[in-house]
């Protein structure tokens, strides 16, 4: 992995020294040099840069201000301060500096800093890949549902005598299967006989907050007030608004704890 670096210092001699030090380090590519902070910002906007080495004292825009502006870029690079000024280390770390190196530059120190930068970049690449995979999985899932005509609005259609009621999913507290019939209970106290099975409702309702707590119950987790230990690995879900208590089976309890992040 090659680290793409820009050197920013208004002193030509210092840039030459810094370039020499970096050229001794494996997998470092010096893409540009800049005299001012503004020039460095323009370079970072034009091309992908991994690391910017900044002096503190520079004309027009000092190193700290330049770093703050780098952070505001869409894809901000990492940055390290290389300076004779010892007074701004705390400020530098507060705005996200990887390191604060005092001149004259120590070769070993610079090598350690570059290694730290490589680790940061590798970690970011791993995180980005995980995010990409999760996003792809979500898109693929939505496309599959669309292909199978399983995309529904936030409304659930309920057939009644001579009409169809459209229930908002957010208003549904729980669904219960009783003697081969399924009833839907809402936050306003109304109950409806459903023309869907409980399994069909589980597929139609938003699974980010609807949870199959038991073979006979599908619960809107937004209405769960308490989870009460019922013994031997089982629990009771207390639905505050409806004064309803629902048994959470042992096998489903493990899944719910993982879903809610409960240790």
From TrEMBL:
Domain of life: Bacteria
Domain HTH LytTR-type, first and last residues per copy: 156-262
Record-linked InterPro entries: CheY-like_superfamily, LytR-like, LytTR_DNA-bd_dom, Sig_transdc_resp-reg_receiver
SUPFAM superfamilies listed in its UniProt record: CheY-like (SSF52172)
UniProt modified residues of type 4-aspartylphosphate: 55
Keywords: Phosphoprotein
Keyword Acyltransferase found: no
Residue span(s) of domain Response regulatory: 4-118
PROSITE patterns assigned: HTH_LYTTR, RESPONSE_REGULATORY
GO molecular function: DNA binding; phosphorelay response regulator activity
Keyword Amino-acid biosynthesis listed: no
Task performed by this protein: May play the central regulatory role in sporulation. It may be an element of the effector pathway responsible for the activation of sporulation genes in response to nutritional stress. Spo0A may act in concert with spo0H (a sigma factor) to control the expression of some genes that are critical to the sporulation process.
Protein name according to UniProt: Stage 0 sporulation protein A homolog
Protein's organism: Candidatus Syntrophocurvum alkaliphilum
Lineage of origin: Bacteria, Bacillati, Bacillota, Clostridia, Eubacteriales
């Amino acid at each position: 992995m090659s680290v793409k670096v820009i050197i920013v210092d208004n002193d030509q001699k210092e840039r030459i020294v810094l370039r020499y030090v970096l050229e001794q380090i494996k997998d470092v590519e010096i893409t540009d040099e800049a005299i001012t902070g503004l020039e460095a910002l323009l370079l970072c906007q034009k091309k992908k840069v991994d690391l910017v080495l900044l002096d503190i004292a520079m004309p027009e825009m000092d190193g700290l201000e330049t770093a703050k502006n780098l952070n505001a870029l869409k894809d901000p690079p990492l940055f390290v301060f290389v300076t004779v000024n010892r007074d701004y280390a705390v400020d530098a770390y507060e705005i996200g500096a990887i390191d604060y190196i005092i001149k004259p530059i120590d070769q070993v120190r610079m090598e350690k800093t570059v290694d730290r930068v490589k680790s940061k970049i590798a970690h970011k690449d791993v995180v980005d890949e995980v995010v990409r995979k999760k996003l792809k999985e979500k898109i693929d899932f939505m496309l599959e549902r669309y292909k199978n005509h399983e995309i529904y609005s936030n409304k659930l259609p309920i057939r009644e005598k001579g009409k169809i009621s459209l229930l908002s999913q957010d208003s549904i507290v729980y669904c219960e299967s009783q003697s081969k019939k399924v009833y839907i209970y809402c936050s306003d106290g109304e109950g409806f006989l459903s023309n869907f099975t409980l399994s069909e409702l589980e597929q139609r309702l938003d699974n980010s907050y609807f949870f199959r707590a038991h073979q006979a119950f599908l619960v809107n987790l937004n209405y769960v007030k308490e989870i009460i230990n019922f013994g031997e690995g089982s629990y009771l879900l207390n639905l505050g608004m409806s004064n309803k208590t629902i048994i959470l089976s042992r096998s489903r309890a493990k899944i719910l704890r993982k879903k809610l992040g409960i240790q």
